Amino acid sequence: MFRKFAVLLVIGSICCFIYGVGHIYVEVEENACRMTYMFGEPRFAPVRFGANKQFPNYGLYYYYEGVRKPLDPLKMRMTGAPVIFVPGNAGSYKQVRSLASVALRKALHSDSGIHLDYYTIDYDEELSGLYGGYLYHQQAFLKHCIRTVLSLYRSRNNNPSIVLIGHSMGGKVAQSVLTDVELSQHINTIISIATPLDQPVLNLDSRIAQFYTQTNALLVQSRTATRPTAETNVCNSLYQKPLSEQERARNTLSPRLDNVLLISTGGGNRDLLVRSGLTSSQFNDIHAMTSAIPKVSVSCDHLSAVWCLQFMQVINRFLFSISHVRDDHSVVFSGNKQRNLQSATAHFVKSRYQSRSSVMHFKSLQNWNEERRLVINKYFANGLKAHYHELISILRQERYKKLAIEVLNVDDDDWLFGCEAKTHNETGKLFCTKGTPLTHLIQRLPNGGREARNVAILDLNNLRKTYRQWTHVLIRLPPSSKRIGFNMDIYDPIDRTIDIRMPRWYTFGQKAAINETLQGTLHYRLRIAELIEPFQGLRVRIQPLQCLHPDYRITTRLCVPWAAGFERYQTLTAPDQKPGLYINVPLVIPRHYNTTLNPLVLDIYLDPNCRYHVTYEYSYADALARLVLEFYGWLPAHLACVLFIVMKNQVDKFQMRGTFKSLKAYIGYFQFSSLYIVTGCRLLKKVVLTTRILPLPEAPDYSINISIIIHCAAIALSIMAAFGVWIALTLYGNVFYRIALRVTRLSQATSNVLISVMTHLPITFGILTIAVALGSCSGIALIVAFIFYFLMLSNAYKDYLEDYLWQKAANLLNLGGSGGGSNENGETTAQTTETSNEGRAQQEQGPAISKNQTENDGLATSDRNEIADGDDETENDDNDDSNETNTDEEEEAARAAKKKAESSSDTDEPCLGLQNFPFHITLLLMLFIVLLLNMPATLAWARSRRYGIDLPDPCLYPSVAVLGALSLLLQMKAPQKCSGYWTMSVALYLCSGICLLYCQAAIYRLNFVIATAFVLLAAHQGLCIIWREATARFC
């Protein structure tokens, strides 16, 4: 029963995984970024300095446009504020064009005289996100670039400052420069764009892990780190100050590196390379998603984040706001961290609406009106020729505590005031002579490319208590030729706040949150509890029931209370719009956090044109997509774990030669016992974290459902890989052989000699590949080893399959030719076939199995003698009493004896050495995993050869161990039938457990675990052979 359930679980998991991959690309919003265009020909002037000799493949360039004459910044007087762009993984130095071009256009149209000097670094488009050896080189070159650029400005400023903008891994390299005490004093601001700051996307390399660990450790010592706690709640107000600013108010900041402003940004749902939760850092002052940045309000994918016009404009507006012109007409960045932080908050978090004055006086006494209704929708289709004033009384019943106001097509910030109304003596109407602006309460909501929605949510009780003289709130609409108007909704917040809980994953169907809203309703708030893990997905459906007009727009704002800067806005214009309204969290919940007290907040700003029905449900599609996006990096560890358990099942089981089972290379892969390892590691992790008797395992403690789904997907993937290798061995061995010949440029004769030598003397295989690893790169050696190993298996399988088919054909011919003859003839033919097969097997397997063959031959001979004796006795009985004997029984016994004699030679001899195909296919797949893990280092080595740069090979030692152990296993014709396999099984169990405890996030550790398994297998086989030979000599 459990086996059937496990089969269904594996099939369901791989189907869910594939569906999740597809859903990621289906439910992605369209790219709403506007392209940035250059107004002149982009030009890059190289900046030459001493470090170019040390880093021949790197370069520093100055960006300018339109000027055809080459410029040399070293010979010019640079007067702008310096900015350095740092590209990321496979990034080009030309990606600075959008940023720099927008800055040039802004400087030309500005009367302030502020302009920026943009520099960009050429990192030769290195894959710094996959190979950590690049990061240290890039960090060192960036330091040289900063010193060189600063030297260009020291003549006009003794202490110049610089701004760094890093995209992708370039942001992490820029952040790491802060660990240099000297340079950090000259860095004003660092802006990271879609950067994995505190942990890498994929930890494929020990050098990447070392770079992150060292950088974070040094920053912890010199800069204030802010982490969410059980009391953190950033949703209590429209905008909460950054945590670092709160700490600064308490004067508890470190004095050394807190003078540098750190701003991080993420692309949102469209960025599938760097997920949102990785873009924030504990050392940041401000974090923002592009979909929540004022005047951007779009999600950017990983590449469009560096050319999205809306985003580029916001970055340059901020840089211009923190710059000022000196008396010598040079531009410098402000050194006032507090002022710069306020400006960053206004540009990246919440627009700072500045009123012209603290009190505004109203001279006009025309167009004044007072409304006492709770819901008002007022529009002027033809616009207004003069200001229109609407007074809303705040002296209401106690339960009406909230006032929601929305104005459309109003660009002026001063439209909302609080005032004390008076009665006009002549007209008897109420009016105000002066009012206090309430612009700080206004939110500018994205509206899907249409006119902006300016919304304010006011607390009437708070206004009455704070401003006792106020009687009204004033809405002042400016003159306009466009359609203009406002909506107002006064309500009891108890009626508009809905508390819901995240449905369980086994809950089906939709649940109603709001049965039906009233016409004219502007605002609802959903408080969502128990949504705590990144893979959970909640879908909220807002269905319009009846609308006065067919077009409507709904804006939602999601706030995660423990994740500052991850607000997400979405505009809905149709019930079946894609993507739908999916709710999930970017970060794991802090320990001891109570989501009942601090729930997620979903603010829904409705179109008062319609009535709505709101439901919610557990979204399996979004949950699967989030699972794939968050945890696809666990697959290598789980796949290695599965292969270890498969190897454990194969290592002591041998199929018999000549049987159909011996042709099945996938034997052992249809297993489910590795699921016990998942549960066992789950329990062991809790024990280790409590007792600390072992090194601490990886910290994240997600639901066990995640591990089971990923593990079952790995089981299915291993089965598909085994079938793929089997098909390749059977059908496409010659094709891969010809491809290998073309790639290696070897002649067929030379390759045949090499394969023959390596097949009969595999130790040369190890010597060759280890020499290649030490002389060039371990990845090249692994590629060579994989190719030769595959070709050896292909040739062995082809020869074995040919012998198997010839043997079966010969048996069929013998059965047909002896149909009317005697039994003795059939036995003689079978014995002849057996002898030829045994001779071939002895030549292939060598003296190691000759003793077993002799014993098997003796057993087969004794069986045949017993059968012959039985036949003689039967004949004597027939002569004594022929009337009592049944002729049919005699013929049946004869046929059974013949079949037993013919099959004895096929079923008694086990498949050893290369003929144990399941065992070697598992080894081949494990070798392939090590090869894939070494590919980034291999590509780095291939690129660095052009410049003669020596890069570290982090996987050299485990690769050498794998290659040496593999050659020994082939030399000893492993696997051999011997004792002690239970110890090998225990070792493989331990390796599989280590994979799940220590290698899910730190993928590079799999190199060492797999190398350990190879070495243990080789040691076990070697000790068994030595023990067997020693026992034979002693006997």
Automatic annotation (TrEMBL):
- Which intervals hold domain GPI inositol-deacylase PGAP1-like alpha/beta? 78-322
Q: Where in the cell is it found?
A: Endoplasmic reticulum membrane
Q: Which GO CC terms are listed, alphabetically? A: endoplasmic reticulum membrane
Q: Where is this region: Disordered?
A: 820-908
Which InterPro entries does this UniProt record tie to the protein?
AB_hydrolase_fold, PGAP1-ab_dom-like, PGAP1/BST1
Describe its membrane topology. Multi-pass membrane protein
- The broad enzyme category this protein falls into is hydrolase
Q: Does the keyword Transmembrane apply?
A: yes
Composition bias, kind Acidic residues: at what positions? 868-892
Gene Ontology biological-process entries: endoplasmic reticulum to Golgi vesicle-mediated transport; GPI anchor metabolic process; protein transport
The EC number(s) given in the record are: 3.1.-.-
Primary residence = endoplasmic reticulum
Q: Where is the composition biased (Basic and acidic residues)?
A: 893-903
One matching Pfam family is PGAP1
| Transmembrane helix listed as a keyword | yes
- Keywords on record: Endoplasmic reticulum, Hydrolase, Membrane, Protein transport, Transmembrane, Transmembrane helix, Transport
Biased composition range(s): Polar residues: 828-856
Residues that span the membrane, as ranges? 705-732, 923-944, 986-1003, 1009-1027
Listed GO MF terms: phosphatidylinositol deacylase activity
Q: Which family does it belong to?
A: Belongs to the GPI inositol-deacylase family.
**Its job:** Involved in inositol deacylation of GPI-anchored proteins which plays important roles in the quality control and ER-associated degradation of GPI-anchored proteins.
Q: What is this protein called?
A: GPI inositol-deacylase
Q: Which organism is it from?
A: Drosophila lebanonensis (Fruit fly)
